[in-house]
Specification:
Blueprint (H helix, E strand, L loop, with lengths): L6 H12 L2 H7 L4 H15 L4 E4 L2 E4 L1 H21 L12 E7 L3 H16 L3 E7 L6 H5 L4 E4 L10 E8 L1 E5 L12 H6 L1 E5 L8 H8 L5 E6 L2 H9 L4 E5 L11 E4 L7 E7 L7 H15 L7
Parallel strand pairs: 3-4, 3-5, 8-9, 8-10
Antiparallel strand pairs: 1-2, 5-12, 6-12, 7-10, 7-11
Length: 302
């Protein structure tokens, strides 16, 4: 069966409202002959004359009367679907968003983000899930609404991004660690036992490359997959960790933090989302909220 022309719903709605081919033609900006042809098509589609002549006018058949209310409702609903979205009412918004982040984000920015969201849109639920890699699949599949992190080679080319803040790496050790006394030189730093953070289980990182340029090497005592694990080990041992300063601010409380004696490239932390959510008013609000919350924290030093 061929698909009916849905434009005929609008034509039928106007014809039933006007009760006149000429008046309906003027309202739809068509010629009387074009409107007559449309009425003929409607009669063929429904198997009913719909409008019949009575004196100088037209009157609806019982079938047309039956269709009248339903057709009007369908046309109004279709117009509502095709109309631009109404202004977002945060007070009435009832929605759940999933945010994927590396460890440190929730600890540092989560409380302020939840407080702002609760105040502005009490019906919104924020779900935080871990970020084991930079694969854009979860965003592409709709499992993740928003993500934070460094744009990498595995980030999908279609993914939209917005810079959140710049960060730098710092060294971290337990309170009272030998490095906390005196100046931290590259030689003293390299002489310690270190924690390497690598989600892919690599055996060296940017710190090793920087030390190599200075003619130094370090001993990597253990490899972990995240910042929280590294800082927990540093807190309970003499091991040294290298972590992003701003991203791990809360996690580093009570630890000795020092400027690295070697130069590492700064990090650019971005907000990432799939383009299908780009124009969504509620998603735009959430992106702005995350941007404001992350931007309110103090920038790391030079």
């Amino acid at each position: 069966m061929s698909r009916p022309d849905l434009n005929l719903l609008v034509t039928l709605d106007v014809l039933l409202a006007e009760g006149s081919v000429a008046n309906a033609a003027r309202r739809l900006k068509l010629s009387p002959s074009a409107m007559s042809r449309a009425l003929a098509r409607l009669r063929e589609a429904t198997g009913d004359p719909l409008l019949v002549r009575a004196g100088r006018g037209l009157v609806p058949t019982p079938r047309a009367v039956e269709l009248g209310a339903e057709v009007g409702r369908l046309v109004k609903e279709a117009e509502a679907v095709l109309r631009p979205a109404e202004r977002l009412d945060l007070a009435r918004l009832n929605r759940s968003f999933t945010l994927r982040n590396s460890d440190g984000f929730v600890e540092n920015f989560g409380p302020a983000l939840l407080a702002r969201a609760s105040r502005e849109a009490p019906g919104v639920q924020l779900r935080f899930v871990p970020k084991p890699d930079k694969d854009s699949g979860p965003m592409r599949e709709g499992a993740v609404d928003l993500e934070t992190g460094v744009i990498g080679n595995t980030t999908g080319p279609e993914v939209r991004s917005r810079a959140l803040f710049r960060d730098r790496f710092v060294g971290v050790a337990r309170a009272g660690h030998p490095l906390s006394e005196g100046r931290v030189t590259a030689a003293r730093f390299a002489a310690g036992r270190h924690i390497l953070i690598s989600r892919r289980g690599l055996d060296r990182g940017p710190v090793d490359d920087a030390l190599e340029l200075a003619g130094l090497t370090r001993t990597i005592a253990t490899v972990v997959g995240g910042f929280a694990e590294a800082l927990a080990l540093a807190r309970g041992s003499d091991l040294i960790a290298t972590v992003p300063e701003r991203y791990t601010g809360t996690l580093r409380e009570g630890l000795f933090t020092f400027t690295l004696p070697v130069k590492l490239a700064p990090l650019s932390i971005s907000l990432l989302w799939h383009p299908r959510l780009d124009a969504d008013p509620a998603h735009r609000w959430l992106r702005g909220l995350v941007k404001e919350v992350c931007g309110s924290a103090r920038n790391p030093g030079p």
